[in-house]
Amino acid sequence: MKYAHIYRSRHLWPVRVQCEVLEVSFTGYHQHRLRRKKHSSRRHMSSEALLVHIRALHAELRGAYGWPRMWRELRRRGVRAGKERVRLAMQRHGIQARGKRRFRVATTDSRHTLPIAPNLLDRNFTVEKPNTTWTGDVTYIATEEGWLYLAVVIDLFSRRIVGWSMKATVDRTLVIEALEMACMQRRPEPGKAIFHSDRGSWYASEDFREVMKMYGLIASMSRRANCWDNAVTETLFGSLKVERLHGEKFLTVREAKDAVIRWILWYNQKRMHSTIGYQSPVEFEHAWQLQREAA
Fold it and tell me: What is the C-alpha to C-alpha distance for residues 284 and 295, in angstroms, rounded to an integer?
């Protein structure tokens, strides 16, 4: 309070005299002013400097984030700016996240006589514990050498990709390898974990059902031609294609594989997800584990 009074009266009375009258240190006054100036400069970053940070981050993340995630990522990296400043800066300079495509009903080989599991998930995408509800699906990536097929397994608890497989041809081994990777990494409790998929022949095949039985997984399948029953996995594929694959031309299948693997690792470890409080899947699981141990 005394330092603030001295600062306000510095044009009326010499600072040194005021320090003597108020019995405070002259050196302490100047150190106080330097600390305030340093804090103020941190707090009031120029618009130009903020824009530089936003542009650099936007380029690094390939346009993956809109302003809410951009603001949080800036804070995570030590750049202090208000939400509204970030939003307005991005709006004024046309910086925005790449638009995501609408859902479309993907054709799948569901016209078969293989057993179809009931829809146990029933669009309940909020899960209280890890390794209790998984979803899976297959998507396609174009390369100059032909198609690359990607199968994934997602844990709905944290939205983490816990298993994946990629091949230049598509058959039941693609989805089996993705599921086996998930099971070997996560060790779900037999008889208490659901795996949800579409009703395609790969997931309904006898070989796939044998793997499900071996790990004690309970099968659940979407209704016919209803992508919303598996919306989390569809959204994941949309994010992959918009944030990483959009505008890319892969000369080889190997190039596409490398790009997808890098994105999966980034998605699991760093990408903020609004559904889990703007944390990455790995961060969310770590926080849950710490909370559990402290309870």
Answer: 17
| Spatial contact of 194 and 132, defined as CB atoms under 8 Å apart | yes
pLDDT tens per residue across span 96-149 = 777 655 444 343 555 656 889 999 999 999 999 999 999 999 999 999 999 999
| Percent residues over pLDDT 70 in the chain | 81
Residue 218 near residue 120 (C-beta atoms within 8 A) = yes
Please, is 65 exposed, middle or buried when counting C-beta atoms within 10 Å of its C-beta (0-12, 13-18, 19+)?
buried
Q: Which backbone phi and psi does 8 adopt, to 5 degrees?
A: -65, -30
Q: Please say whether the beta carbons of 266 and 243 come within 8 A.
A: no
Please give the C-alpha separations between residue 202 and each of 52, 93, 147, 255, 292, in angstroms, as whole numbers.
48, 47, 18, 26, 37
The pTM score is: 0.72
CA distance between the termini of the chain: 43
pLDDT at 114: 80
